[in-house]
Structures are given as structure tokens and as C-alpha cells.
């Protein structure tokens, strides 16, 4: 969701600059939107910390307990790392932004027309159409979900992967105008993620090969063999970044690497929350040069991977220093 919202905002900014007659690099704006993805796994929808906080997951079975989000996503050190990373990324993009914009990098007229177009209208010819166009239907279902969530938290329930999904569903139902708008948005979203849907089986096959062949274990164990309690988090970060090229799914990656990292952490006495977030940091880090998740954004913008790769590579370098430095610092703080 963050990628698409960022892409839409980038389009709006590009259109506003074009409307004022001020040139701005559209590929740079789209790269900036994608660069916001560098903090996704540190945030509320991060697969690894959510799975670690979910009862009956392999993490809770391995440790005998769950890892609460207050120890991972909402820990002081992770929140500080988010702020630092965002500042570094913003400064990086500011420094490398082109001062003179070639004509081919200005937003296309078709993008301007599409962005400024009138919102889709849905006629109400029949009673069924009136129901579908009524806001009360989606709002009603949204309030039902909200009621469930309030009851869940009031009774002492925790935030898990399922609960986060329910929260996003409630927000969607409350924000759309009616059922027809919801269906239209789903259809448009499906067309934007079509490339990802086609490639997921391929990457699932690669993940299966890497797991069955023991390659993931070899990569992880080699990096862990040179680790100390202070540096295990850093090497976990690097190994997660390497594996992400072949398994670009946060949920799939923790399933593959998680048991290995947790076992190593138990042997060295490292807090498992550090290793969960090290995996999350590494997964999001190499997304900057792994174009898999950029595909829907590029489709939305009508660009190619090479149009944004130069910008995202710079972000990859500076964010790598920031994220790696953060996880290394935490390793030393927790070990001391």
C-alpha cells in the first residue's frame, strides 16, 4: 500500500510542477516514492516482527513465547533508526536530484490527463444500484470490523498479523464511498500488481530450491560463523539482504532464515528481537536494487527499472550504512 500511495503522491507532485511550468524529473520523483519502501519492514506491517508476535507461529514455538511489538517495531531503538533512515534517504535524494531536467524526464501528458481526470461515476438505475452506491453498506461493515477490533483490544488481545490485516480492512471499508468504488479500486490495483502475481510462483520455486538444497543454510551459517554476540545482528542483516535477492518476500524470508538466526542467537545469547529486526532491515535494504516490488509503481508511472535504478542505488548505499550502523550499535548496547 505504501508503494502505491507514494507513487500517487509522486504523480500529483509532478503534475503540479508541470501545471506551474516548472520542470522536475519524474523518474526522480518515482524513485523517491519507492525509496520510502526502505522502512516498510521496520513499520506496522512488517512481516517478520508481526509473525514473531503471533501465537502458534514457529517463532513462539522455538522460543516458548512470542516477541511483542514493543520489543521490535515499537522499541525505542527501532523508532530512532526509522527517523535516521528517513532523514538520510531524504538528504541523499536531495543531493543527487538533477538540477537541469531533460525533456524526456518530464512527466508525460497522458499521466497528467489521467491524474486530473474526473473521478469515476456510478449510475443508480435500479434499487440494487442504489444499494451498491450507498456509503452506508461499506461504512456499516467497516464499523462491524472496528467493533470487533475494539472488543479484541479491550479484552487484552495483542497485535498480530491477522489483527493488522483486519485493521487495514476496516480502514478501507470506512474510506471508500461505496461498494462500486471498492470494486473499481480492487480491479485497478490488481492490474498494477499483475507482474508481481506472475513472478511470485517463480520466486516461490527459487525459495524452495534454496531451502531444499541447503543454500540458505550455507549463506546464513557462513556469516554467522564469523559472528560474536555483538556482531551477530550485523551479519544477520547482511545475510538477509543477500537472501532477499532470491526470496523477495518478508514472510517467506523469515520462514527460511528465521529458525537459523534464532538458533544462532540462542547459542550466543543474543536478544531474539535484535535478530528479528536485523532480518527485517536486511530484507527491506536490498529492495532498493531488487526491482521486484517496484513493478507496480513503475506500471503506475509508465517507467522502466533503469529510469529509477541510479537513484535507488544511491539510497541503497547510504541506507545500508545507516541500517547496518544502527543494528551494530544496538548489538553492542545490548551485549554490554
TrEMBL record:
List the keywords (alphabetical): Membrane, Transmembrane, Transmembrane helix
Q: Name one GO cellular component term.
A: plasma membrane
Residue ranges spanning the membrane: these are 76-96, 136-154, 166-186, 198-220, 232-248, 312-335
Recorded protein name is TIGR00366 family protein
- Which superkingdom? Bacteria
Q: Does the keyword Transmembrane helix apply?
A: yes
Task: Give one Pfam hit by family name.
Answer: SCFA_trans
Which lineage?
A: Bacteria, Bacillati, Actinomycetota, Actinomycetes, Mycobacteriales
